[in-house]
Amino acid sequence: MSTPVLDVQGLAFAYPDGHQALFGVDLHVHQGERVALLGPNGAGKTTLVLHLNGILTAGKGTVTVSGLPVAKAHLKEIRRRVGIVFQDPDDQLFLGTVRQDVAFGPANLGLKGPELDRRVMDALDRVGMADFVDRPPHHLSYGQRRRVAVATVLAMEPEVLVLDEPSSNLDPASRRELADILRSLDVTVLMVTHDLPYALELCPRSVVLSEGVVVADRPTFDVLTDDELMAAHRLELPWGFDPRRIGSLPG
């Protein structure tokens, strides 16, 4: 198989207070995959994600993105390659208009003029928000702000899109619209989520992190139908949702 886009090997990390969050994590994600990162609260998911673009740096182990080590010397390029969409869109939208927010990252890379405009409009087209380009973000619905937050990352033309709880606080229509958008993107996706039906719908593969180690790396359907694994790591399906009735969804 080809070189992974994301390659995490033996990643261990302890916070300054001594709390050990990761104990030798291995994770490999290949180009075009959509992978769900599952696990209970406190499993180390956020700590792992923050290593993928150098917000945190490894105590032990290595993280590479398309062969480039995540290290201080490469942080600008790593952060272009790995885009993180945070759980709260208001953490990413802080300027006066949608256009300004989506242009912010590419402008910092030195883009301007027609090329910058092309990046902005292309990113907004991909999330169905081009008609809102001159609107203030705070006038948008929560679901629309979530889509604009995705566009701010897509405008950087990343190789990997990391989504932190993308379906949280969305109404059913917004949840479905975002799923359609994510399916349409030609980008590698790592999705951190507690929304197990969303993981099944969007991600053919799931990695389960628990107490700082990977305890499963299998097809999502297999993970969600392994009752012993689910119970052992505090993963619970919504009441009445049975993956066995739905079957394994296509990617």
UniProtKB/TrEMBL annotation:
Membrane topology of the entry: Peripheral membrane protein
InterPro entries referenced in this protein's UniProt entry, alphabetically: AAA+_ATPase (IPR003593), ABC_transporter-like_ATP-bd (IPR003439), ABC_transporter-like_CS (IPR017871), ABC_transpr_CbiO/EcfA_su (IPR015856), Co_trans_ATP-bd (IPR005876), ECF_ABC_transporter_ATP-bd (IPR050095), P-loop_NTPase (IPR027417)
GO terms under biological process: cobalt ion transport
GO molecular function list: ATP binding; ATP hydrolysis activity; ATPase-coupled transmembrane transporter activity
Upper lineage: Bacteria, Bacillati, Actinomycetota, Actinomycetes, Propionibacteriales
Organism: Nocardioides exalbidus
Principal location class: membrane
Compartment list: Cell membrane
Pfam families documented for this protein: ABC_tran (PF00005)
Domain ABC transporter: 6-236
PANTHER family according to UniProt: ENERGY-COUPLING FACTOR TRANSPORTER ATP-BINDING PROTEIN ECFA1 (PTHR43553:SF24), HEAVY METAL TRANSPORTER (PTHR43553)
Function: Probably part of an ABC transporter complex. Responsible for energy coupling to the transport system.
UniProt family annotation: Belongs to the ABC transporter superfamily.
Keyword Cell membrane in record: yes
One cellular component term from this protein's GO annotations in UniProt: ATP-binding cassette (ABC) transporter complex
Annotated protein name in UniProt: ABC transporter ATP-binding protein
SMART domains membership: AAA (SM00382)
Entry keywords, A to Z: ATP-binding, Cell membrane, Membrane, Nucleotide-binding, Translocase, Transport
